[in-house]
Amino acid sequence: MGGLDLGVHLLHTGAALSVVLFIAAAGGRTARLMHQPRVIGEIIAGLLAGPAVIFLFGEETFHVLLPGTVLDVLTLIGQTGLILFLVGLAHKLRTGSGSPSRGTVWTAAGALVAPLLSGVLLVCWIVATDDAAVRGNAPFLAFLLIVAVAMSITAVPVLARILTDRGISETAAGQAALGSAVVIDVVGWVLLTVAIGLGTGDHTSSMHSARALLTGVVCALAIRYILRLDAARVMCRRLPRGTAVLLAAAALGVAFTVEHMGMTSILGAALVGLAVPGGPDAPWGRAVTAVSRFGRALIPAFFVVTGITVLQQAFASVSWMLVGLTVLLGCAGKGLGGYAGARLGGHAPGAAARVGVLMNTRGLTELIVLQAGYEAGLLAAPLVLALIVMALATTVMTGPLLDLLDSKAGHPDAGSAPAETESGIR
User: Fold this and answer.
1) Where is the Cation/H+ exchanger transmembrane domain (predicted)?
2) Which region among 66-70, 339-343, 412-416 has the lowest average model confidence (pLDDT)?
3) pLDDT at 412 > cutoff 90
4) Is residue 249 part of a domain?
5) N or C: at which end does the chain have fewer Cβ atoms within 10 angstroms?
6) How many domains does the chain have?
7) In whole angstroms, what is the distance from residue 2 CA to residue 133 CA?
């Protein structure tokens, strides 16, 4: 590629990325005007941008606006953003997963077991309909487990944002929901790893996956050892920005190495985030937040690429009965399971109902899980579309359902303490 061609390519890529970020920002602002989490607007706008252009102007015009070389760069940018964001998300899960209370354990159990069972019911329906386009060709146990995990996820960042925006982070319902969501997502990441491992199908592939996972664990442990050194702590305090850059580079290196060896880069990023030391005396909070914020700024490219590569082919083959059933099971599993778990944990009926509603918040974390399952060949595009609709629908329902519960109770369920702001992770 000559100098002039390279310059044109860079300008084209920069313009495409600018449009993507503008679309995401517009979607986010629209969502806030509708009293919805900003990330929901960004996700919907990003996912629909590519298919909308293709539908309105045709594939030829789309490929002129976004040729394959530019799309490849946007794919890399979106993957980079996802990896860096996951470092912060995994670190947040780790530092927030202290010793849970008895009530939190019961709530988490209800909000995890019931959705897992709803995932089993969804798989049974898919197998009964014998739709190969939805079933795909993944090994049955891996397929069953990834669908169950996708139905059970609660998005900790989006849930925390909703609790903060509504001023209910210090209420019994808010604390129970957030604590349970952390526990559920930790278990979910473990089950996701198992599902991807089962999805290899044969002995040789299983060995490759095990080697990739072991490499990721060793690299993460090495990063953890380095970060615990006094010299690393001093560097972090004196040069926080430089430390953030090095941490980002390490996360990208581990993630892409794990991907090159046969596992998804998402697991490599999560391992690095879990490896970063936590605790009140650890100076890594600012560096992790900076890395996650930068990744979060690039994630709209991931939404757009997902809409082009996954949803475009899924729209033509998806069964809307599948979408409806997925949404119904998603609502019932989380809502009823969360309510039952909260009641067993000692919460009053009103607080338990709010917990059930809050546990249905899925958002971006669900898309990450679905991307991992899609990349690993465990989920077919039509089922990914159905699960995305379920994730967005259940998250959008959260605010209106909380308003309905508040109106029936005669007062908002607000906490007495001021709401805390999030550390850049939405």
Assistant:
1) 21-401
2) 412-416
3) no
4) yes
5) N
6) 1
7) 43
Q: Which two tokens stand for residue 354?
A: 């709010």
CA distance 194 to 280: 32
Token representation of residue 215? 């490499």
Quick one: tokens of 355?
């917990």
Cα pseudo-dihedral 314, 315, 319, 321, rounded to 10: 120
Residue 417 lies in a domain: no
Instruction: Give the pLDDT confidence of 152-205 residue by residue, as tens digits.
Output: 998 887 888 788 778 887 788 888 888 888 888 888 888 888 888 888 766 666
| Predicted confidence band of residue 416 (pLDDT cuts 50, 70, 90) | very low
Query: Residue 139 corresponds to which tokens in the numbers above?
Result: 């090994």
The reply to whether 303 falls in a domain is yes
In a domain, 426, yes or no: no
299-323 burial: b if 16+ Cβ within 10 Å, else e? bbbbbbbbbbebbbbbeeebbeebb
d(CA 353, CA 339): 5
Among 332, 338, 378, 380, smallest CA distance to 358 is for: 338
pTM for the model stands at 0.80
Which CATH number does the domain housing residue 61 bear?
1.20.1530.20
